[in-house]
What we know:
By secondary structure, the chain is an alpha/beta fold. It has a single domain, classed as NAD(P)-binding Rossmann-like Domain (Rossmann fold), CATH 3.40.50. Helices cover 45% and strands 14% of the residues. It has helices at 18-29, 41-53, 68-82, 105-130, 155-175, 193-196, 200-208, 218-229, 259-264, and strands at 9-13, 33-38, 57-62, 87-90, 137-141, 181-187, 240-243. The longest helix has 26 residues, at 105-130. The chain is globular. NADP nicotinamide-adenine-dinucleotide phosphate (NAP) binds next to α1, α4 and α6.
Amino acid sequence: MVLSFENKTVVVTGASKGIGKGIAQAFAGAGASVAVVSRHREEAECSAAEIVAGGGKAYAFEGDVTSLESMKQLAKKVNGSFGGIDIICANAGIFPSASLEDISGAEWDAVMNTNVKGTFFTVQASLPYLKRSDGGRIIMTSSITGPLTGYAGWSHYGASKAAQLGFMRSAALELAPHGITINAIMPGNVMTEGLRDMGEAYLNSMAASVPLKRLGTIDDMAHAALFFASEGAGYITGQTLVVDGGGQTIPESLDAFGKEKITEQ
Ligand code: NAP
C-alpha cells in the first residue's frame, strides 16, 4: 500500500518531541502539511524546522490540550493557514510515576486533564473543520498500560489511557455519519525523551522483556498512525492497534520465551 498524504493537513499535538515528533515527520515525508503543536513555541519551532530542512511542509503552533479555548484557537489558526484540517493526531500526553499511596488529587487531575480531557478538547475543537474534509481521520495515542496491562506507579496514567478508549468507541458512532474515523495506537515502550527520564535500568529491563528484543522507535509508532489515516483504512473505526514488538502483551512469563528450550538446541 502506497501512503500519500499530498493535499492533506495534519495536526499533531505533542509534536515537539517523542512519538508526536515521529508522527509529524512521517506525515510530512508522505506529502502532508503538518501543524506541529506543543505548549512551548520554541520547541515546536525546532521540530517544525527539522521537517522543513528535510524538504517537508510544517508549521509550529503553540497549544495546550488542557484548555478548550487554546484548542479552538489552534484549530482556527491551522484552518486559516492551510485551508482545512483532514487528520488529527491526539498524541500529547504525560506519564508521571507515583505510587497509589502518594498520588495527590492534583497529580491525578493533571494526568486526566492532559490525557483524557485533552484528547476530548483536541477532537471537539477540530470537529467543525474535520466535518468539511472528504475523509476526516482522528488517531489517538493510547497505550498498552491501562487498557491491557498494568505497571506499579502508573495507576492514574493507566486509568487515563483506558478512558481514552472508552471515549473513542462512543465518539466513533457519532463521527461515522460525517465520514470521520477515530482509532487508537497502543504503544508498548517507545524510546522517547519522556521515557529516557525513567532511567537506564528501567529501559534495559523493558527492552529485555520484549520478544523482538528492542524498545519501539518513534518510526514504529508513526507507521501505525499513517495506516489509520490512510484511504485504505477508511472502513476501520473505533479500533486499536497494539505496537509493542510482541511484548509486553504476548509472553505470559519469562518462561514463556522458551529460553531453556533454545539453550538446549
Ligand atoms: P514525550 O516525549 O514526553 O512528549 C510529550 C509531548 O506532549 C511533548 O511534545 C510535549 O510538549 C507535549 N505535551 C505535554 N503536555 C501537553 C499539553 N498540555 N498540551 C500540548 N502538548 C503537551 O512523550 P512520548 O513518550 O512521546 O508520549 C507521547 C504519547 O504517547 C503520550 O500520550 C503517551 O502517553 C503515549 N505513550 C508513550 C509511550 C512511550 O513508551 N514513550 C508508551 C505508550 C504510550 P510540551 O511539553 O512542549 O507541551
